[in-house]
Hints:
Strand order of the largest sheet: 8-1-10-9
Organism: Pseudodesulfovibrio methanolicus
Protein name: 4Fe-4S dicluster domain-containing protein
Low-confidence stretches: none
Strand content: 15-25%
Order of helices and strands: EHEEHEEHEEHHEEE
Radius of gyration: 17 Å
Mean pLDDT: 94
Structural class: alpha+beta
Number of strands: 10
Keywords: 4Fe-4S, Iron, Iron-sulfur, Metal-binding
Domain 4Fe-4S ferredoxin-type: 5-34, 51-81, 83-112
Largest sheet: 4 strands, mixed
Amino acid sequence: MKKQYAFLVDTERCIGCFTCAMACRNYYHQVEGVVWRQVYPLSEEIYPHRERAFLSLACNHCENPACLNVCPVEAYTKREEDGVVVHHQEKCIGCGNCIRSCPYGAPKYNPVEKRAEKCSLCHERLDAGLNPACVQACPTDALQLIDLAEFERTNEVQYPAGYPRMEELNPSTRFVLPKTPKMVRR
Length: 186
């Protein structure tokens, strides 16, 4: 397998603090209403416990990205060296094909620029030997950068409950699911 960078979201460690989302926003200064990383609490239907669990989500940097495949002006590229899907906003014509095609909602419309934009896994930081801003900021190491080609698989999953199962896209993000809380009887 070729090198493929991916996010590992450990819901056992995530405390829902939104530091990852704030770090992304602080680094890229997205306009109001445009968010590249979002933190969602798991619904009670999926995780019916008093303790809460969260998913921190951004672009999945899919193996076969829908955004790249539908873009009429080649505003997306997938880097050969690490599998990161990069959006080149200067090429974007704002047609919205990528926004409508991504089942994970990663590309967002920027109403000021009148173009799409999305997480590009801080590729410029990766090139400088740094972690993405969201990964670096996580205070509990719940969000990690992994290389799927070298990642030692243990208990992570690709499609947690409630997450669109799109095998033809093969999203790279992996998840460690929350454990059932232990009951203590007194």
